[in-house]
Amino acid sequence: MKNRIFTLLMTGVMLISILSSCGKKTKEDKMLELGSISLESEKASVSNINNTNVDIISEETFTYKTSTIPIENDIDGINQIIEKDGIIYGVGYVSDEDWNSSTMLFSVDIKTASVHYYSYSLPPYSDVVNLAVNKENELFFIESSYEDGYEYQSEYKSYALHMIDKEGNLQLSVDMNEYLSWEYPPELVFDNSGNLFIQTYDSILVFSKDCALLFDIDLDIEQYVYYPMFSLYDDTIVIPLNMNHTITLYSVGMETKKLQPITEFPISGNSLIYAGHGEDAEIYAIDESAIYSYSLKSGEKQFVMDLLGRGFNYIQANYWCILSSEQMALLYYNERNNTTDITILTKSNEPQKPRQIITLATYWADVYTISEFNRKNETYQVELIDYYEHGTDYKDAQARLYADILSGNGPDMLNFHSMEYENYADSGVLADLYPFFEKDQILNVDALIEGVTKALSIDGKLLAMTPEFTVSTIMGVSSIVGSHRGMSIDELIQLETNLGEGTKLFNQTSNTGFVSILCTANWEHFIDYEQGSAHFNSEEFIRILEFADRFAEPIPEQGGVLPLLTEEEALMQGSAVLSHQGFSYFGNLHVFETSIGKDFTLMGFHSAGNSMVKMGAEKMYGICNNAANPDGAWEFIKYLLSEEFQQNKVFQFPVLESIYDKDVEYWTDPAFSKSTDPNLGDRGPGMTQDQVDEVYAMIASMTGPQKYYTPIMEIINTEVAAFFSGDKSAEATAETINSRVGVLLNERL
Fold first, then answer.
1. β-bridge mates for residue 533, sequence order
2. What domains lie within the chain, and their CATH numbers?
3. N or C: which end of the chain has fewer CB within 10 A?
4. Which pLDDT does position 398 carry in this prediction?
5. Checking DSSP bridges between strand 355-362 and strand 413-415, what pairing results, if any?
6. 468, containing H or E segment
């Protein structure tokens, strides 16, 4: 309970007959045997490699057996792991009961499955940046200290290179301030001669065994994105540089003191690259959600493993290393449960039980949830189709998804993060979830919070579901705004007129920010998806523009810090009376009011004088009407709504009523105070029944969901700039927005 609470303290044409075209693949076509291919290849000499073409060769199915080596449960996060001669070295951090963090160095012997923790202690406000191990298996690392603790925009005060023995005793310390700066965490690697290579923001530094600088190589910081360097089997130090989504591998010439190109190949822009073992000159990389190997000799790209399919969160999979062509180690940290394991994956020829694939279309994916489902479920596996992949324009991503749906190659499910939910709902793409609930023998829709199902229902159909939600609203200081809800623009103007000198309506809300808030909360007033028409030329929208003109332009960042009071400070000091807030857990409103010391009225968003509270749901999922695997898609929805998931994996408001009731019980406990929960600070007594009723009424009144639709908001933000600069009238601006959005709606499903 407390972990969940504390962690959150914030183109197609009009579709008429599409119901028969979404996801027309058969279940037989969508069966998958998990596995990989053989990684063996011929010897390769780096000196004669210059391949520019990459071929992806076919998969050969085999399985991996897994074994785990647990790391202490009080390690709250891992920053890095590296491997040398069968030993994994890592650095993580631990937190005490007051949430003060300290760094811990450890090593793991793969053969004996034993974990060793170094006794070395870092001074306050210090951190370990990166690790390296030399040929003698001595552990080196860069230690950084901060000028002003961990304050925002604090620069490193100093850098030092340290070497410690197995007991954690400091054996070597070298001042590195002359060479390192705070902009880029340095990367370290040794060659077999004991030379140390350090990759910085704009150079490669090469030091001798006694830490004397031999030479440095400047890097073109304007052109390249950098990846960690590594050492190949033949002791070649490789620097991967990425330009225009193509990674070029360079070797460091010890004689020429220059970078020498080895090869280049096109891969995804966020790939993480590591060297393999042996004389096959293989390089391993995570590309999207899978591990691939690359042969420097043949230029072949071989599929190794589907990380997400095997239940690993590939976003955190930079914590992995190759042990051999038959074995790899992956550090699996489940931040939701605060557990850390070293997972050893060993290739096996035993047959893998096939699972049915559920295809999920997305512009953004909650890989934490999907990996957990894939790890637990033996019958189904979620396979992501990322339309908004690296370098893809939003409109291109949308057009590709539309084309797949219209051609009959649509997915089983849609993830509505950054998608226009109403568009797909009105186009008939989505299946009503109510019949799934009615058929299910375990899960009943009555087990869910009624306000959630009401907010997600359209014309009596439940077309999407979310495992968690937030409540988004505009709230005001009760002593100023009273109990009035849903103020009109005229009432807001009158409120502003009555404010004293030095007090304004909002603290940091700009003119464009105010327009954005009201647009994302009022799409249904300005867009009719069913008719494919826009209504931004309405009197209501013009009044919003005119009112927003009272606010300031967005304030540019100055040295990374905005010269304004925080929202809480402004409300506490009385320099602002309204605030746009998103409440993410049951006690959020109580904590907010108690910390500021004032009562607040939940006013809702202006919408033709009505009070509106919007649902925030970043993890909405819908099932396609003619999905090839509707049963599998429903199993995924059920997993999100299971008591286990709702209790342990949800960090916002849960949708399961029984779990919500447990939150109520927790926050209304009369003994609830600083003494029982020190991590909450001085939050006062538990919530009263009136406060409980207010939160539930707020949830019951949700109309949602509140969504930021990128293409539409890009049009609005572009056009309102001319109005706010005085170059265009509000009426002309509204007409232009209406026309442009109307054209965009004609490209919808």
1. 528
2. 2-21+360-467+619-667 (3.40.190.10), 34-353 (2.120.10.30), 470-605+705-745 (3.40.190.10)
3. N
4. 83
5. parallel
6. strand 468-477
